[in-house]
Design goal:
Structural class: alpha/beta
Helix content: 40-55%
Number of strands: 8
Order of helices and strands: HEHEHEHEHHHEHHEHHEHEH
Largest sheet: 8 strands, parallel, barrel
Oligomer: single chain
Number of helices: 13
Distance between the termini: 63 Å
Length: about 260
């Protein structure tokens, strides 16, 4: 089994920067995986990626040094098992609001005795090696999301669940439950919650993660976050295409009008 270099970097106190995929394309996955991100997450909650897409995209990412992570649609034992069998090295689970829900995440991510994950070697035994079963519990990253006011209020209990490697803030949903508009960097109650997550994670020895962009990476790293999303496939495509057409039209106008 390959080493989860993201978990190794977390243990060393390093900040890891990740990319986010919503477009169901192995080519997009390949482009992103060769850009130097520590990890790439396939978004199966809000993205357009289905299971067959995900298997192929994970295969593509696993051919690089980048670590493949999957955000599953919900806290579903069977779906989490399938994505791990597909080769995901980490699982992000949305809307985890209590210690009991966090325990369900861990239970799905870990083989006995740490959990109840089923041994399904149809694909993983081919791609990950004979030692996968012995090493998976240590290498797989188990990451509940903190994205509601309730989750922040129950944070100490969630972080006390054995087997939780990191928690990951979803800023938009968290902002909404705090009475704010959706956004990546709201002030007020959101900023208080962000700082509370960072403090609690440090106290419990759990990695703090957050969904962000490149402009916010330094701010979050300075606050102690070690898992930061800095790029999303479709936003990068929108930005590049918009910049290209704007520049081209400006230059064409200057020639035509001249």
């Amino acid at each position: 089994m390959r080493e989860n270099t993201v978990k190794a970097k977390w243990r060393a106190g390093e900040v890891t920067l990740g990319g986010w995929l919503a477009i169901p394309s192995t080519f997009t996955a390949e482009i992103m995986a060769y850009r130097g991100f520590d990890w790439i997450c396939l978004d199966m909650q809000h993205g357009l990626i289905d299971y067959a897409d995900a298997v192929r995209m994970i295969q593509t990412i696993n051919a690089t040094d980048t670590v493949p992570i999957v955000r599953v649609p919900d806290n579903d034992f069977g779906f989490i098992n399938r994505m791990l069998d597909a080769g995901a090295m980490g699982i992000i689970v949305p809307l985890v609001n209590s210690a009991e829900e966090a325990r369900r995440v861990v239970d799905a991510c870990r083989y006995y005795p740490a959990g109840s994950r089923s041994m399904g070697p149809t694909r993983i035994s081919v791609s990950a090696g004979a030692d996968y079963g012995a090493r998976a519990n240590d290498e797989i990253a188990c990451i509940p999301m903190v994205e509601t006011k309730e989750a922040v209020e129950n944070l100490d209990e969630i972080l006390s669940v054995e087997g939780v490697d990191a928690v990951y803030i979803g800023p938009a949903d968290l902002s909404i439950t705090l009475g704010l508009p959706p956004g990546l960097d709201n002030g007020g109650a959101f900023e208080e919650a962000r700082q509370a997550v960072a403090r609690a994670c440090k106290a419990h020895g759990v990695v703090a993660g957050i969904h962000a962009d490149a402009t916010l990476a330094a701010k979050h790293a300075g606050a102690g976050f070690q898992m930061i999303t800095v790029s999303i496939d479709f936003r990068g495509l929108i930005r590049a295409a918009s910049d290209d057409i704007a520049l081209a039209r400006e230059q064409v106008r200057s020639v035509v009008s001249g």
